[in-house]
């Protein structure tokens, strides 16, 4: 084997390794990060799922969670959020298509709360207890209490203001 050829092969292997590392890093980001990826949208999702709380971005839960949630909207966290079947189908397809890649134990029941996912707990472990208890926050699901641009799907650090 000529050394030129061998060097080319070695170079190729390095490039493939780097490409793999980048892909893994991106998959991790896509799972939850607000600003780093162009926001996806759907008019029915925005209107129906953004009427009681912010329309939580699809990437924040895996497809299995959205499927489970959309099949139980009649009993949605103590409220009735049911929709006409065609609307529910369209929203469900949108959520699943753009879902996050968060992995769970294959046997575990799909998580329905973003605020109970592993990444959420990790990202928020420095939020002091008194802030969670602040009446302006009320619930970890109240993203907009701190993420001032949650309404537009932007969760970047620079747009966080925690109530005192
Ligand atoms: C009738 C009001 C209402 C509508 C409409 C509604 N929700 Fe909710 N949703 C709630 C309430 C109430 C909670 C619980 C909030 C809390 O615990 O503070 C909730 C919680 C959630 C959570 C969990 C948040 C967390 O991390 O704790 C998700 C995800 C969610 N809703 C998705 C949706 C989707 C998707 C739709 C549209 C198909 C939708 N919601 C429509 C009332 C609604
Ligand atoms: C009590 C205030 C508060 C609430 C409520 C809250 N967050 Fe956060 N969030 C923070 C803080 C503080 C950070 C950490 C910023 C840092 O150190 O990187 C954070 C980080 C994040 C990040 C990572 C941002 C980045 O670029 O690093 C995401 C994504 C996020 N939150 C999503 C959510 C979602 C979705 C909700 C609602 C379901 C929510 N948060 C509710 C305060 C809050």
Task: Give a quick rundown of the structure.
By secondary structure, the protein is mainly alpha-helical. It contains 6 helices and no strands.
State the main characteristics.
single chain; 164 residues; mainly alpha; extended; binds heme C
Question: What is the secondary structure topology, with strand pairs?
Answer:
Elements: H1 3-30, H2 43-49, H3 63-70, H4 85-97, H5 118-123, H6 129-133
The structure holds heme C (HEC) (2 copies).
Model description:
The protein is an all-alpha fold and 164 residues long. The protein has two domains: 1-30; 31-159, no CATH class. It is built from six helices and no strands. It has helices at residues 3-30, 43-49, 63-70, 85-97, 118-123, 129-133. α3 runs antiparallel to α4 (85-97). The radius of gyration is 20 Å and the shape is extended. The N and C termini lie far apart (68 Å). Mean pLDDT is 85; it is low at 22-36. Bound molecules: heme C (HEC) (2 copies). One heme C binds next to α2.
- Outline the biggest β-sheet: none
Structural class: mainly alpha
Average pLDDT level: 85
From the alpha carbons, calculate the radius of gyration and give it in angstroms. Answer: 20 Å
* Beta-strand fraction estimate: under 5%
The low-pLDDT segments are 22-36
Bound molecule kinds, no repeats: heme C
SSE string = HHHHHH
The proportion of residues forming helix, as a percent range, comes to 40-55%
How would the global form be characterised?
extended
Give me the count of strands.
0
Q: Helical stretch count? A: 6
Whole-number total of structural domains: 2
Termini, distance in Å? Answer: 68 Å
């Amino acid at each position: 084997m000529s050394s030129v050829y061998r060097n080319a092969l070695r170079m190729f292997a390095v490039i493939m390794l780097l490409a793999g590392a980048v892909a893994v890093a991106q998959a991790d980001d896509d799972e939850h990060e607000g600003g780093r990826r162009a926001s996806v949208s759907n008019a029915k999702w925005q209107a129906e799922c953004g009427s009681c709380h912010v329309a939580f971005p699809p990437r924040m839960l895996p497809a299995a969670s959205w499927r489970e949630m959309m099949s139980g909207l009649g009993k949605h966290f103590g409220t009735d959020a049911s929709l006409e079947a065609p609307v529910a189908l369209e929203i469900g397809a949108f959520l699943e298509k753009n879902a996050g890649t968060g992995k769970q134990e294959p046997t575990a029941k799909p998580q329905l709360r973003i605020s109970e996912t592993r990444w959420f707990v990790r990202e928020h472990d420095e939020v002091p207890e008194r802030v969670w208890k602040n009446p302006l926050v009320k619930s970890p699901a109240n993203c907009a209490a701190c993420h001032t641009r949650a309404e537009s799907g932007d969760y970047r650090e620079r747009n966080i203001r925690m109530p005192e």
